UniProtKB/TrEMBL annotation:
GO cellular component: endoplasmic reticulum membrane; Golgi membrane
Predominant localisation class: membrane
Species name: Aegilops tauschii subsp. strangulata
Protein name (database record): UDP-galactose/UDP-glucose transporter 5B
GO molecular function: 3'-phosphoadenosine 5'-phosphosulfate transmembrane transporter activity; antiporter activity
Membrane topology summary: Multi-pass membrane protein
Record field: transmembrane: 21-40, 52-69, 89-107, 127-145, 179-196
Keywords on record: Antiport, Membrane, Transmembrane, Transmembrane helix, Transport
Organismal lineage: Eukaryota, Viridiplantae, Streptophyta, Embryophyta, Tracheophyta
Protein's UniProt keywords contain Plastid: no
Length: 221
């Protein structure tokens, strides 16, 4: 959420209030607690400690920065050029295909990948299902960004990732540490408080609008 707000300020000249930054920082802190403090049984036996390197942190910061830029720039294209959803998905997918094909050719992985598909034809159906679901999800993503904006999409994705990890822990019987429970409570509490405050403001605006409209009517009468 924080990278999206930073990019939104730079690219789209948006102005966010202190409450928006406060909720973004709280959600980020909750997610950090959930990720950085797993249960002791959940640490791989091949790696006795939780290790953070400069390269690993740099990769994570780069991912967050580029991911925030992508959704923000999509929002700019929708609002600035009135681009249709299917047009944006088509051109983005074409660029992804060119980049992926170039990577396979430069790394000499294209022929081994084709050979793997030939030797394992059952894998083709799995790839087809995965590609179909991923393509369908792009329509939901683009619709959300176009209708509600990049920050709302970032909030949804943050919540989805946390819920996905929680379901994975339940499904594969991975224990949760008390710090992870605290992090999850912080994230969902902050999101609930944000939604509650927004609904309260909307109700207040609806209640105040009839009283504002009655002043001209009284003057005319």
């Amino acid at each position: 959420m924080i990278p999206v707000m930073i990019w939104g300020t730079i690219i789209m000249k948006k102005k966010y209030g202190g409450k928006d930054y406060f909720f973004a920082v709280i959600v980020t802190m909750g997610c950090s607690l959930f990720i950085l403090y797993p249960a002791s049984m959940d640490v791989s036996p091949l790696n006795k400690g939780r290790e953070s390197t400069v390269w690993g942190v740099s990769l994570m910061l780069g991912y967050l920065g580029f991911d925030g830029f992508t959704s923000t720039f999509q929002d700019k294209l929708f609002k600035g050029y009135e681009m249709e959803i299917h047009n944006q998905i088509f051109y983005t997918t074409m660029c992804s295909c060119v980049i992926s094909l170039s990577g396979l050719i430069l790394q000499n992985h294209l022929l081994p990948a084709v050979d793997f598909m030939v030797r394992h034809p059952d894998c083709f159906y799995d790839v087809l299902i995965l590609s179909t679901v991923a393509t369908a999800s792009q329509f939901f993503i683009s619709y959300t960004i176009r209708t509600f904006g990049a920050l709302t999409f970032a909030t949804i994705m943050t919540t989805r990732q946390l819920v996905s990890i929680l379901l994975s822990c339940v499904w594969f019987v991975h224990p949760l540490s008390w710090m992870q429970w605290v992090g999850a409570a912080i994230v969902f509490g902050a999101l609930y408080a944000k939604t509650f405050s927004r609904n309260k403001l909307q109700k207040a605006a609806v209640v105040s609008s009839p009283s504002q409209g009655s002043v001209p009517n009284a003057a005319n009468s």
